[in-house]
């Protein structure tokens, strides 16, 4: 095995159930980062009922994958109900929020950001 940690906070060469990698915390949103790079991040989140994140906008596209429960995803002015096994992409630069409004909710968040232009480097 390589000594490099491209993916962190999870044992390598083991089978995992994503929803079991993180637990709920009373009245809070718990999160665990798996990948943190300049242009790409992957995070697992557990939202207690009535909690959530946002509204905010991101410079990259963000995909929410529902791991457990049901979550409310607001993109712009449109509300979506996301159930276990479903996913949705929140487009870059559009305000969005995710909440465990009806139920506790676990999700995986994948964010892909644009590459820096030569002027920004």
From TrEMBL:
<dbReference type="InterPro" id="IPR011051">
    <property type="entry name" value="RmlC_Cupin_sf"/>
</dbReference>
<feature type="domain" description="Cupin type-2">
    <location>
        <begin position="44"/>
        <end position="110"/>
    </location>
</feature>
<protein>
    <recommendedName>
        <fullName>Cupin type-2 domain-containing protein</fullName>
    </recommendedName>
</protein>
<dbReference type="InterPro" id="IPR013096">
    <property type="entry name" value="Cupin_2"/>
</dbReference>
<dbReference type="Pfam" id="PF07883">
    <property type="entry name" value="Cupin_2"/>
</dbReference>
<dbReference type="InterPro" id="IPR014710">
    <property type="entry name" value="RmlC-like_jellyroll"/>
</dbReference>
